[in-house]
């Protein structure tokens, strides 16, 4: 009989192998794996929540289930690596509050755990007079959100004192914006959870969430390889798969679902890399404030390279990292949804713009060259990521974090779904964990 063991009890190295081993029980056998809380999804959000739960309630028996062989394999390791200061987000939104709180928590965490990060700062630069109004609105937002040390830089000389290669005539300077490798942070949160006695189960995909019929552990979670777990509570942190996870919840024998007119779509995000040229700070264009995107940017990475771009076009499957990743069911569901159809009409010109950037690297480089003097020869293809967008039925974007706390009936009253946590969720991860745990700790005590 094999159980997953918490990390503190076994030597390093062996732990990961052992964490893959768990007692297998058939559906009809007595179910012996019972937990106070099951966290599904081992990205930065799931690991941060698991860690916070175990820190607050050391006796809570908690398990984190991840379908991949390592933590943070998707969005948490495929991103811009920026510690956002909290400038962009609408005042009073969850993004604004959790990001501003998250920056302080994450920098303190990195200091305490010796995780490398750099305060490279950020310039958001207006290069055209039509951008001044939006830039000033952004500055007001940032100030209202409580972003520290935010400043307007009102001449090219002053901008160039910060980064000599920059162009433009008006900019926001945010010295508190930083850069970090979010996959290292995710791994560290996972380690904390293990050390505190939490269980981590890798390579197991949750396939079904339903009622167990037991009053103490009413949730039954079925994973691949015929593994069944019972739990009092479940916290879903599936990232790109959060919609799919929600659909896996089967209330009763009739399998009734909560209907949702919104649709989650995956966007393929492509970066380029600037080689042999350095840049001392993050440089961003003024974004279109009607869209939840930050616009073209350059972000220095800790390894010395500089990310450039990105472009974003619809992916052909949930984890559609390349043109050959195609899933017909996902595609037909997406293409036939009113949300997607309205989105393409509503944002046709912006879509064409993204397509031009994705198809023609030179076009994207020219966009970046409006901000910074860089040489085209030094730009090479970079990494690809996948980002979720949560689209309303009328085709508009959901522009804030979305959590579903204990919504619906039956076992849903014991489930939290971290439904939509786009950027700046990595920066906000520790604040998100506080926010989610507040809602579950009282119930678990
Ligand atoms: C291109 C891009 C750039 C970004 N840049 C930044 C940035 O600079 N700064 C910032 O703060 N944020 C940034 N973000 C946002 C941030 O990276 C994400 O919001 C964050 O990583 C989301 O974390 P997550 O844990 O929710 O999702 P993920 O990291 O995607 O993790 C979800 C996990 O759930 C697992 N899973 C799914 N379904 C199941 C299942 N059925 N069973 C078991 N496991 C399952 C998946 O395998 C995955 O590991 C960026 C995002 C993208 C895509």
Automatic annotation (TrEMBL):
Coiled coil: none annotated. Its EC number is 1.1.99.2. The keyword Flavoprotein applies. SUPFAM superfamilies: FAD/NAD(P)-binding domain. It is an enzyme of class 1 (oxidoreductase). Keywords: FAD, Flavoprotein, Oxidoreductase. It holds the Pfam family DAO. This is L-2-hydroxyglutarate dehydrogenase, mitochondrial.
């Amino acid at each position: 009989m094999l159980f997953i063991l918490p990390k503190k009890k076994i030597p390093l190295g062996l732990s990961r192998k052992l964490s893959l081993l768990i007692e297998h029980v058939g559906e009809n056998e007595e179910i012996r794996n019972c937990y106070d809380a099951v966290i599904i999804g081992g990205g930065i959000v799931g690991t941060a929540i698991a860690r916070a739960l175990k820190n607050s309630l050391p006796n809570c028996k908690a398990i984190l289930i991840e379908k991949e062989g390592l933590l943070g394999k998707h969005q948490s390791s495929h991103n811009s690596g920026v510690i956002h200061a909290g400038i962009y987000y609408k005042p009073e939104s969850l993004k604004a509050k959790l990001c501003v709180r998250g920056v302080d928590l994450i920098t303190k965490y990195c200091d305490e755990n010796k995780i490398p990060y750099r305060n490279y700062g950020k310039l958001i630069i207006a290069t055209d007079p039509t951008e001044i109004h939006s830039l000033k609105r952004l500055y007001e937002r940032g100030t209202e959100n409580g972003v520290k040390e935010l400043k307007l830089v009102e001449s090219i000389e002053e901008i160039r004192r910060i980064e000599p290669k920059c162009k433009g005539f008006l900019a926001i300077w945010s010295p508190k914006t930083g850069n970090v490798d979010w996959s290292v942070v995710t791994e560290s949160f996972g380690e904390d959870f293990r050390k505190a006695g939490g269980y981590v189960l890798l390579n197991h995909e949750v396939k079904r969430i339903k009622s167990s019929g037991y009053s103490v552990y009413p949730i039954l979670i079925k994973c691949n390889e015929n593994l069944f777990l019972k739990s009092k509570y479940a916290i879903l942190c599936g990232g790109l798969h959060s919609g799919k996870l929600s659909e896996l919840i089967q209330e009763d024998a009739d399998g009734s679902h909560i209907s949702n007119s919104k649709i989650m779509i995956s966007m393929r995000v492509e970066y380029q890399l600037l080689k042999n040229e350095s840049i001392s700070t993050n440089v961003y264009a003024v974004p279109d404030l009607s869209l939840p995107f930050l616009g073209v940017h350059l972000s220095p990475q800790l390894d010395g390279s500089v990310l450039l771009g990105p472009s974003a076009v619809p992916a052909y499957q949930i984890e559609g990292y390349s043109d050959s990743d195609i899933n017909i069911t996902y595609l037909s569901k997406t293409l036939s949804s009113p949300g997607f159809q309205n989105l393409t009409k509503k944002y046709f010109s912006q879509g064409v713009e993204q397509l031009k950037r994705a198809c023609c690297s030179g076009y994207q480089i020219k966009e970046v060259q409006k901000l910074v003097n860089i040489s085209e020869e030094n730009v090479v293809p970079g990494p690809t990521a996948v980002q979720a967008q949560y689209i309303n039925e009328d085709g508009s974007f959901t522009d804030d974090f979305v959590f579903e706390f204990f919504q619906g009936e039956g076992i849903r009253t014991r489930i939290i779904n971290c439904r939509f946590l786009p950027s700046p969720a990595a920066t906000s991860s520790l604040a998100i964990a506080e926010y989610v745990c507040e809602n579950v700790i009282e119930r678990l005590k």
